Amino acid sequence: MNRQYQVKVNGELELSVSNDDIKSLDTIKTSDLKYHLLHDGKSYSAEITDNNFNEKKYKVKINNNTYNINIYNDLDQLIKDLGFEIGNSKKVDRITAPMPGLILEISVEIGDAVKENDPLLILEAMKMENVISSPREGIIKSISVKKGDAVDKNQLLIEFE
């Protein structure tokens, strides 16, 4: 199977690279993170100077020029489209109502420090009580609802600092 990868260089240039493209490179590994490449008759010296596998970020030095590179495969794109990116919950700054309902209880106040999975409030919807928990650690910046409020889907409930 010829897998495709999306490569972003310096946050601007986007390329699509396949396994066949990678296999066709004339490359020799010269040490742990250093390589020698031949492409179109030109010689290149490449070194991976920094990498973050979880975020798929790499710094590569080619002939004394440093490039920031992000590499994504089909699974990464699917995960992103579904909203399940690695560390995605850590970036959540706002909690919105997942469905229309009634606020039965608010368990936090502005300025409270919460941990991931701490209960924030209870939303009654379709005769069921739904506990809305914190997706991350943080400080409560604002609470946009009060006990007894009816809320619409996607209405802002709580913001984090």
UniProtKB/TrEMBL annotation:
- The portions of this protein that span the membrane are none
Start and end of every Lipoyl-binding domain?
83-161
| Cited InterPro entries | Biotin_BS, Biotin_Carboxyl_Carrier/Decarb, Biotin_lipoyl, Single_hybrid_motif
Q: Does the record's keyword annotation contain Phosphoprotein? A: no
- Gene3D superfamilies hit by this protein: 2.40.50.100
Keywords associated with the record? Biotin
Task: Kindly give the PANTHER family that the UniProt entry links to this protein.
Answer: OXALOACETATE DECARBOXYLASE ALPHA CHAIN
Q: What is this protein called?
A: Acetyl-CoA carboxylase biotin carboxyl carrier protein subunit
